[in-house]
Each structure stands twice: as structure tokens, then as C-alpha cells.
């Protein structure tokens, strides 16, 4: 499984990045210090109009939270990636991003001229920068993931941000089921309570994933995910190597 | 919160019936009030709003949810744009709770939710695709179709993070009324969903009324 070397890097706090991840690779993401928030969005690099769809992801799996076993769906009924490991049990995908004004109000405005890399970058601006690299703009910004952050809901629908949810060493693994353009930022969750700007880095390892087995936890999580994998298989049907024995990720099941 | 309106239907300047499977796309001016009436009960009105001056500013479910600290929409809820500006406020509501988590039905998500062979069944996102194609004057495309409101749908969240599609709490004649804070394009898909028991597999018309 290790014909390709693993790539490991640290994404510093208050930063943003994007990369194309090939089908069959996985991203292992670790909260290094505890209290991190990783904003993420997914696009199809071959059709940038296909993007992560939070409502479809939630309703297809009857869940409000994201955790191990869940698949992250595009608006086209396909799966960008599956959550194959998760030490936390709950990640948010409905609260969106911090903004320049919300960060200034909560933590004070520290711009780059004053603070350099210790500036108070916000999630909305961070995504705008990455989107623009692919000819995209604010119209293309969908509801994003906030990995490592938990926001629960009571019977009356009220939200509560759960403090101290993620601890140092907590990890989540995303296995990519199709080629995906991944946008990410390490800006604070928009509901993080007032106080000092939480400057938290994350560590990322990009490596080859194990093949998807018939009893895969994401594939078998619910009948809906089985059909989602079949939609991926249909999309990839013309892809050379998809069905070959060495195509390590030929695991889109037709049973 | 249940709040009755003081407006009379006979005073409305516009009264349109929207059949199931059709879309409705019109401009509502700042200060005008629009009412969506669930004529026969438990029908979903999948709705999006855009600034008429610049449709790239539009209803944002996540900004609305976060800024009001609640996942349900009802009287008093201010619908926020992706620029965090107030777009409309819900000023009357005889249903009590509306969903903005579950999104719209689409032919693609139908294949996942119900069956791969349901891919050709009519769905809300198809209605929106036709709306943007037939109304080129608004300059909108698929890029503008985002995370919507489902008026009259009941989608509670459980304590352990489950999402449930509960029995409808709407009924014939229930309505929601919104006052526009800016000139907005309203885009409704009156849901044609035939797979979901929420509407007893019977999509029905809604009515849109507008007052000056
Ligand atoms: Zn629908």
C-alpha cells in the first residue's frame, strides 16, 4: 500500500490552503494542541459546479453531526469522501464561517500589517482567497465542514457550542472516493466564545487508503451510502484502471 | 411561535397559485409583505431569496441559523444573506416551525435517498434549473442554487445529533408571512416529491399573496 510516500505537513493557525486529492487517497487530520477548527469545502476539479452539499449529506444519513461511517456528498448524489476514522464523534457542518466583522467583535481586529502571521484571519476571507484561485467566488461558497467543532441542538432548536470538545491528539480520517479539490482553513469556529483568538494548527498526512472492502463501515453505514457508492461507480465507469485488479480503489460495489 | 396576521387576503396586490412541480420567481419590494399559504396541508415550499440589486447576495441558511442561534424558522426569525444582511423577517406564522436544514429534493439525491431508478422523477432542483433557464433577465445559473428553506416542513434534531423527518405540523390553510427588508427575488419550488410520506405522497398547490 505504500508505493507512494506519505506526505505530512502542518497547517498553521489562521491559515488556508487547497489541494487536489486523488480518488483512493486519504487525509489523516490531527488536532495538535486541542481546540482546533478546520473549515473544509470540496469541489469536483473536473466540474467546479459540483460541490459539497451539506443538506444532502445530512438528510441522506439522517444525521445532524458528522462522524465515522458518514459519507460527504456532492450535490450530484456522489460521495467526495468517507469518514473512516474519528476519535471525536461529532463535527459541525451547519454553522458556516467566521467573518472579518465577527472575528473583530469577538477577539479584536489584528491585521497582517500589525501582526504578521499572528493576524486574526477569518474563515470567510480565507475561503474567498482559495476559491478565487480556481475562478470561483462567493456564489460558490457552500455550507462548509467545521471539523473538530461540536454544536448541539435542544428540543426547541437552540444551538449550543460545546467548548473543549477536541483535545490534543484527536484525529479524523477522510478517504476520497473521487478526485476532489479540497479547500481548507484553520480559522476559529464562528461560535467560539469570546476570549483570546484560538490560534490552533492542525497536522495533515496524505497517504494511500486501504481498498474499500465489502464490509466497509462507510459503505454499509446505511442503504443510502450503498447507493451513493454506486453513483460513484457509475461516474467512474469509463475510468481506466477503475475495475482493474491493481486499481486499489476498485471498491465501488455492484452488489 | 404561532402568530396570526392582520392582513386581509382581499387587500393583496398579487395572488398567485403555484401548482406542485411548478416554480414561482418574482421580485418582492422592500417593505412589501408576502404570504405563502399551504392550501391543502403538509406541502413543502422549497424557497430561496436573492437581492434583486445583486443576486450574488442571497439567503444563507448557515448565517441565518448561526446568527439567530436556532435551527428552526418562525415568527421573529430574520433571514440573513451570505453578506450577513437582513433580507426578510417572518412576521406571521400559523404553522410554528419551518425547516432550513434538509435542503431541497433533487433527482440526484433521490437516487441516494430512495432508489437509483428514481433518477428521472421530477424534483425541486429541476424546477429551479428551469427557473434560472427561463428567466435569463435575472442572470442566474446553477451556481446560484444553494441551501434553501423548506416552509411547512418539520425536521427536528435529536439530542444525540440525529436528524428526523417528523410528521408535518402544517395543515390546510396554514401560512407563513415575510416582510422584505430589501428588494428580493423570491424563488419557490412547490415540491413535487412523490417518495416522501411527509406529504402523504400527494403534492398539492400553495398560494403566494403579496401586499404593499
Ligand atoms: Zn422537493
From TrEMBL, chain A:
Species of origin: Corallincola holothuriorum
Domain of life: Bacteria
Alphabetical list of Pfam families matching this protein: DUF1989
Domain DUF1989 residue range list: 10-181
This protein's name: Urea carboxylase-associated family protein
InterPro entries: DUF1989, UAAP1
TrEMBL record, chain B:
Pfam families, alphabetized: DUF1989
Matches recorded under InterPro entries: DUF1989 (IPR018959), UAAP2 (IPR017791)
Residue ranges crossing the lipid bilayer per the database entry: none
Source organism, top-level taxon: Bacteria
Domain DUF1989: 17-185
Protein name: Urea carboxylase-associated family protein
Amino acid at each position: 500500500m505504500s508505493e507512494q510516500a506519505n506526505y505530512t505537513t502542518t497547517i498553521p493557525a489562521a491559515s488556508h490552503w487547497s489541494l487536489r486529492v486523488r480518488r483512493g487517497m486519504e487525509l489523516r487530520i490531527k488536532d495538535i494542541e486541542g481546540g482546533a477548527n478546520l473549515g473544509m469545502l470540496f469541489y469536483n476539479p473536473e466540474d467546479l459546479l459540483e460541490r459539497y452539499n451539506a443538506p444532502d449529506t445530512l438528510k441522506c444519513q439522517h444525521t445532524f453531526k458528522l462522524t465515522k461511517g458518514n459519507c460527504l456528498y456532492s450535490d450530484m448524489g456522489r460521495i467526495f469522501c468517507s469518514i473512516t476514522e474519528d476519535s471525536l464523534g461529532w463535527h459541525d457542518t451547519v454553522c458556516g464561517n467566521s467573518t472579518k466583522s465577527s472575528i473583530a467583535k469577538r477577539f479584536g481586529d489584528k491585521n497582517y500589517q500589525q501582526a504578521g502571521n499572528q493576524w486574526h484571519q477569518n474563515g470567510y476571507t480565507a475561503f474567498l482567497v482559495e476559491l478565487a484561485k480556481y475562478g470561483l467566488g462567493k456564489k460558490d461558497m457552500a455550507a462548509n465542514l467545521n471539523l473538530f467543532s461540536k454544536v448541539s441542538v435542544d428540543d426547541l432548536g437552540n444551538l449550543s457550542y460545546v467548548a473543549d470538545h477536541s483535545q490534543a491528539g484527536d484525529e479524523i480520517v477522510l478517504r476520497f472516493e473521487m478526485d476532489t479539490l479540497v479547500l481548507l482553513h484553520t480559522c476559529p469556529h464562528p461560535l467560539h466564545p469570546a476570549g483570546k483568538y484560538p490560534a490552533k494548527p492542525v497536522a495533515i498526512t496524505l497517504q494511500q487508503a486501504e481498498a474499500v472492502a465489502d464490509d466497509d463501515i462507510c459503505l454499509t453505514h446505511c442503504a443510502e451510502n450503498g447507493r451513493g457508492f454506486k453513483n460513484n461507480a457509475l461516474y467512474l465507469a469509463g475510468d481506466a484502471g477503475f475495475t482493474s485488479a491493481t486499481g486499489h480503489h476498485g471498491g465501488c460495489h455492484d452488489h | 411561535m404561532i402568530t396570526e396576521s392582520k392582513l386581509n387576503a382581499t387587500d393583496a396586490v398579487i395572488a398567485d397559485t403555484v401548482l406542485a412541480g411548478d416554480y414561482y420567481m418574482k421580485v418582492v419590494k422592500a417593505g412589501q409583505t408576502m404570504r405563502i399559504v399551504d392550501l391543502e396541508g403538509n406541502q413543502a415550499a422549497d424557497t430561496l431569496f436573492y437581492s434583486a440589486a445583486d443576486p450574488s447576495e442571497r439567503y444563507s441558511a448557515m448565517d441565518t441559523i448561526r446568527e439567530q442561534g436556532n435551527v428552526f424558522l418562525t415568527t421573529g426569525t430574520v433571514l440573513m444573506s451570505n453578506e450577513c444582511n437582513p433580507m426578510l423577517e417572518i412576521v406571521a406564522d400559523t404553522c410554528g416551525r419551518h425547516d432550513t436544514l434538509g435542503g431541497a429534493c433533487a433527482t440526484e439525491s433521490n437516487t441516494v435517498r430512495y432508489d437509483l431508478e428514481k433518477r428521472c422523477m421530477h424534483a425541486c432542483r429541476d424546477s429551479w434549473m428551469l427557473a434560472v433557464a427561463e428567466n435569463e433577465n435575472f442572470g442566474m445559473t446553477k451556481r446560484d442554487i444553494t441551501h434553501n428553506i423548506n416552509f411547512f416542513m418539520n425536521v427536528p434534531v435529536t439530542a444525540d445529533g440525529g436528524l428526523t423527518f417528523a410528521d408535518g405540523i402544517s395543515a390546510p390553510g396554514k401560512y407563513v408571512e415575510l416582510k422584505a427588508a430589501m428588494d428580493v427575488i423570491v424563488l419557490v419550488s412547490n415540491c413535487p416529491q412523490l417518495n416522501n410520506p411527509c406529504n402523504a405522497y400527494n403534492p398539492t398547490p400553495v398560494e403566494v399573496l403579496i401586499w404593499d
